[in-house]
Amino acid sequence: MKPLFHLFVLLCMSASCFADDFNAANEAYAAEKYADAKKLYLKTLESGPQANVFYNLANTCFRLGEFGPAAAAYERALALKPSYHEAAVNLRFLREKTSARVAPVKWYQTVFSAMPAQTALLTGLGVTWLGLLLLGFSLWRRMGWLGGFGAVTVILLGAVYAAGVSWQDKLARQGAIVTGEKLEARLDPSDRSGVAETLSAGSRVTIKGGQGSWLYCALPNGSNGWVKTAEIEQVYLR
Amino acid sequence: MAARSFLPTVLRCLLVFLITGALLRAADYPSLKSHVSSNTAQVGEAIRLIVEVSNVKSASPPAVVADGLEIRFRGESTQVNMTNGNFSRKQVYTYAVMAAKEGSYTIPAIEMEAEGQKLKTQPIAINIEGGSMPSPGNSDGGADASKSFFAEIHVDKKELYVGETIPIEFRLYIREPATGRLTNNPQLTGEGFSVQPFGHPSQRGVQLEGKQYGVAQFMSLITATKAGKLTLGPISVPLLVQTPERNSGIYDQFFGGNLGPAREIKLEAPAIEVEVKPLPQEGRPEGFSGAIGKFEFEAAGSPGKIQAGQPVEMKLWIRGQGNFDRIGVPDIQEPDHWQVYPPGDAFEASDRLGYGGSKVFTQNVIPKVQTTSMPSYVFSYFDPEQKKYATISSRIQPLVVVGVIAPVVEESGPSSSVEKQEEAKPVAPDILGISPLAGNVGTFGISMSYGKLFTLLFLPLPFVLAIVGWHFRKPNPEIARKKALREEIGVHMKAVRDAKEIGSVVDAAVHVLQCHISLLKGGMPSQIEDAQIIEVGVSKGDLEKKLKQLFARRSELLYMGAGSEGGILRTEREQLLELMSEFERSVSR
Q1: Interchain contact, A118 vs B447, CB within 8 Å
Q2: Which letter does DSSP use for residue B452 in this model?
Q3: Which pLDDT value is given to residue B414?
């Protein structure tokens, strides 16, 4: 009984510290002490990724003029909570301000990323299960081809959605944000190589591979190019 | 007797021949005649002079000259007549005679030589009366129906307000069948008003004092620019006219033919005066932009649901009649709550002048504060009929704003109110504020491994496959046969218990026994012989005997057709049921 009590007290203290840091960060932000606020938000994030904290951190970076890290933090907030409207609005505003570029998003990508990936995947699985149960039921009750067709349709919908969500998650894991003020993506992994595309802070690229300190990325203009590892930040944190 | 009567007849014929020949010869003599279509005419009206030359092989039109008259050759024609087998030829020359002034004139005798003879006509006197035709250089106008040509300026109202726009007409009246053509469009110039050029005229016919006139209407818009008495006109226009010749035939008049030569006159529409008043100061709305007329106002926005920071497109329609060119975008109410962008506008006229129509402004607005309704607009105008200002507010439409409205960052620093007013441009939107709540810890993407994922995905699959397998399994015919036999036994046992006819009861009982044997030994129940059933009862006490009695009873009922009383039936039924049970027990052992 005693160890359990100790664990409970430890958890409470941890939660209390976390809340203290977050509130202190908000106060620092309100007092326009943005550097302090940033430190406190980063400290808060040590306990785990939280959409709201990333959002506040992004705002703080924005106020500090660090548009690249701000964009990365907004992207992280959106990755954790795709329906985060404020984050989406601010990110759009930031990108308009910095002329950041993003590859056009296809409609099916929007569908597959409408919910948090984990939730979306479980939803897809749930629908697939439902379809399988419907199929069993229709066979048991001899509901004919119409029942079977409906069940198979539900199965396919669920399975395709789950697969799509997984695929979109894989792509999202490869997503990275340009954190420097200006980035020149090269045609080859060399500073002397030709420029494939010039990207400003907040632009989004997709990492396809790497070589040394260079990463081979899909660029917003549809081409591929090489960027230095230090110039971009992956959205998903490990 | 015959000779005496023949002579006078020949003499008589000869006499007739000679007289006729003399007459014919007299008719062949060349002659020259002249006459006019009318001896009286008005100034500017043409009289037709006809000169006829008969029995001349070749002739040319004679020259006709008279003091004070303008005589123009208009054409010639030839007439050929046949009388009593003889042909006569007549040359007809036509002239138009006009006088510029009223008075008495004489067309002198016309002379010509033909066939070696000197021919001459009689002088003709004509009288020219004072008419409506103005002399070149003189003006003659006004809405006077007694005249052939006149013009007027027309406005619908004689009392205007400064800035008010009204239609103005220049009307040109031409009495039919005369024709007229303007070489230049009318022009109105003057002070105290602005006017658009007159466009192409429209034409119509009117009757004035019983006379038919063609009216050409030139329309434009005039806007009063200063208060006081305003004189519109006169408008002077050069007009090329053609009038019909006096007393031309009905055929000619019908087809509008025989018009005199075209000549230019100067026609003048007299000036008119209108009173221009200043707009009243009393009741003048703040947002009044100078719109004067009769208007309707409506505003609508779309979409009805926006994300915070997105614009709503407002469309503002102003319909009616008035000075559309002076109508500016209506005022937005609560301007501090909206970020307003410069509007676009389009005007669609409902008439040729653009006096009536619809003006639509398109303006994008972004809410700067949290709101549940679209902006309301106010349009003010002066109604000259009511002589007062009118203000229309647009209907308020609901608006859903999703998300939090971004706080507006106001530029701080010392500045005068005038400077602030000048810099009242839309403030650039800023980022939305921070979240006061930390929220829950989440995970990036899918934390599940692909192995787990596929396991979860196909977890119910074995269950479904089992169902499918069960569904599509191959049935055992022997089991199916036995199942069918058991079902049959059940059905017939019911008949043994419930049937009302003893025959049916017995038949059902026998069939139950057959089914039992069939279950035991195979084969169809109907093919089971009585002996096979009785064999079951051998060495089982009186079962064999009871079975034999049953078959005997069946034969009895079959061949004798005997029935039974209900009491007997009940007894037999009980005995049969007992037999069935006993037989079943024996078989199952």
Answers
A1: yes
A2: H
A3: 43
Q: What is residue B203's three-state secondary structure? A: strand
Number of independent structural domains in chain B: 4
CB contact under 8 A, A236 and B431: no
Residue B142, pLDDT > 50, answer no
- Which H/E stretch holds residue B392? strand B388-393
Residues 145-164 of A with CB under 8 A from B: 159, 162
Q: What is the pLDDT of residue B28?
A: 62
Select the residue from A26, A132, A169 to test the B interface by mutation, using most B Cβ atoms within 10 A.
A132
Whether the CB-CB separation of A204 and A175 falls below 8 Å is answered with yes
Specify the CATH number for the domain of residue B491: 1.20.120
pLDDT in tens, B68-114: 887 877 778 877 776 655 667 788 888 878 777 788 888 988 888 87
What letter does residue B21 receive in the DSSP assignment? H
CATH number at residue B360: 2.60.40.740
Tens of pLDDT, residue by residue over B167-200, are 888 888 888 777 877 777 788 877 788 887 787 7
Q: Which of B375, B402, B429 represents a domain boundary (last residue)?
A: B402
B333/B388 same-domain check: yes
Instruction: Give the chain B residue nearest A130 (alpha carbons).
Output: B460
Could you say which of B357, B377, B402 is where a domain stops?
B402
Domain that holds residue B300: 293-402
Whether residue A39 has pLDDT greater than 70: yes
Nearest to B444 among A29, A121, A236 (CB): A236
What six digits make up the tokens of B5? 């009567």
Query: Is B221 in the same domain as B153?
Result: yes
Q: How far is CA B400 from CA B133, B341, B392, B431, in A?
A: 75, 20, 25, 20
Give the lowest-confidence range in A44-48, B38-42, B257-261, B458-462.
B257-261
Pick among A18, A32, A42, A86 to test the B interface (most B CBs inside 10 A): A86
Contact A53 B468 (CB under 8 A): no
Closest CA–CA distance from residue B574 to any residue of chain A (Å): 42
Report pLDDT for A17.
Answer: 61
* Same domain membership, residue B153 and residue B259: yes
pLDDT tens, residue by residue, B282-300: 888 887 888 999 898 989 8
Band of residue B16 on the pLDDT scale cut at 50, 70, 90: low
Chain A residues with beta carbon closer than 8 angstroms to that of B445: 79, 117-118, 169, 172-173, 236
Q: Which helix (H) or strand (E) holds B165?
A: strand B165-175
Same domain for B80 and B155?
no
pTM of the model: 0.40
Looking at the complex, does the CB of residue A177 fall below 8 Å from at least one CB of chain B? no
Our separate counts of H helices and E strands in chain B read 10, 31
What is the value of ipTM here, to two decimals? 0.79
Name which of A20, A74, A89 to mutate to probe chain B: the one with the most chain B Cβ atoms within 10 A of its Cβ: A89
Q: What is the pLDDT of residue B119?
A: 85
Q: Tell whether B504 is covered by a domain.
A: yes
Residue B21's φ and ψ, nearest 5 degrees, are -60, -40
Instruction: Look at A18-27, B167-176, B367-376, B457-466 and tell me which has the smallest mean pLDDT.
Output: B457-466
* CATH number for the domain harbouring residue B242: 2.60.40
- Enter the tokens of residue B11: 């003499």
CB contact under 8 A, A236 and B308: no
What is the token pair recorded at A201?
């802070």
Q: Is B329 inside a domain boundary?
A: yes
